Amino acid sequence: MKVGIIGLGLIGGSMAIDLRRKGFASEITGVEADTVNAAAAEKIGLVDRVTGFDECVDGSDIVVLAVPVGAAVQMLPKVLDRFAASEDGKDKIVMDVCSTKEQLAANVKYHPMRKNYVASHPMAGTEYSGPWAAMPGLFDGHACIICDREESSPKAVRTVEKLYETLNMRLTYMNSSSHDVHTAYVSHISHVTSFALALTVLDKEKDEKHIFDLASGGFSSTVRLAKSSPDMWTPILTQNRDNVLRVMDTYIDKMKAFREAIADCDEDAIRELIEEANRIRRIIR
């Protein structure tokens, strides 16, 4: 299987490592707009070679869009256009790994090669970015969502399922709209709150230089997502705006409830809020 990966950062690079290591790919080509990242990806052996967009698409059986979703929205129809113009295009597959899906799906809904596209979201990652962040085993045991599978050809879906099974991921299925709602709750709000907490602490640190000397593991784990790439997260939050805003409104309501209870020194109310929050143990162990 010849795999082309467009975007050689954490996700694309980690995918390249394991698809080669586990024998899924016989050849991996990459596309990387950043010249420094492109040179690094080639030097550390993430891909066999870095090529241009057209060469990568034309020479690959599977094309993986591992770029920020704003770029993926623009690239996806271009990939399908090249499939349509190719003699063997009907047998090619394009997939994305983006964190929002509705706009991507809408952008190619009526494309004649729509069935060659499989929408997917591997729920794995770290706060780091770039080819240096790529690592083996990143996807092991994590969930992967395949969206709108009825819109894709059965052959394309089976091939993408095999790819993710090679990466040792757990597969689940939903439509694009449901995906974007769920990720707003389990991923996007976590990043927004981490960004906001980091800004809050940075404001305080201007006056109290020792605040980071006191930071413990709890603070580090809570705020680590604030190190995530703005290039990736800006389009995610804008494309999933409505869902994210609804979650933020609920979050703000809960913060207000805590603020009022603390302001009133209402220990019963504080305890009740904490005990209610402890129910999260049923979901996260």
Note down, in words, how this protein is organized.
The chain is built from eleven helices and eight strands. With 285 residues, it is of the alpha/beta class. It has two domains: 2-174, NAD(P)-binding Rossmann-like Domain (Rossmann fold, 3-Layer(aba) Sandwich), CATH 3.40.50; 179-282, 6-phosphogluconate dehydrogenase C-terminal fold, CATH 1.10.3660. The protein has an eight-stranded mixed sheet, sandwiched between helices. α7 packs across α10 (241-263) and α10 runs antiparallel to α11. The longest helix has 30 residues, at 176-205. The radius of gyration is 21 Å and the shape is globular. The model has no long low-confidence stretch (mean pLDDT 93).
Annotation keywords:
alpha/beta; 2 domains; 8 strands; 285 residues; Rossmann fold; globular; 6-phosphogluconate dehydrogenase C-terminal fold
- DSSP summary, beta strand count: 8
Put simply, the count of helices is 11
- Would you state the CATH class of the largest domain? Alpha Beta
CATH level-3 fold name of the largest domain? Rossmann fold
The CATH homologous superfamily of the largest domain corresponds to NAD(P)-binding Rossmann-like Domain
How is the largest sheet built, in terms of strand order? 3-2-1-4-5-6-7-8
Coarse structural class: alpha/beta
Strand content: 5-15%
Specify the biggest β-sheet: 8 strands, mixed
**Structural shape:** globular
* Unreliable runs: none
The radius of gyration over CA amounts to 21 Å
SSE run: EHEHEHEHEHEEHEHHHHH
Write down the overall mean pLDDT. Answer: 93
**Separation of termini?**
38 Å
Query: Helicity, in percent?
Result: 40-55%
| CATH-derived architecture of the largest domain | 3-Layer(aba) Sandwich
Count structural domains: 2
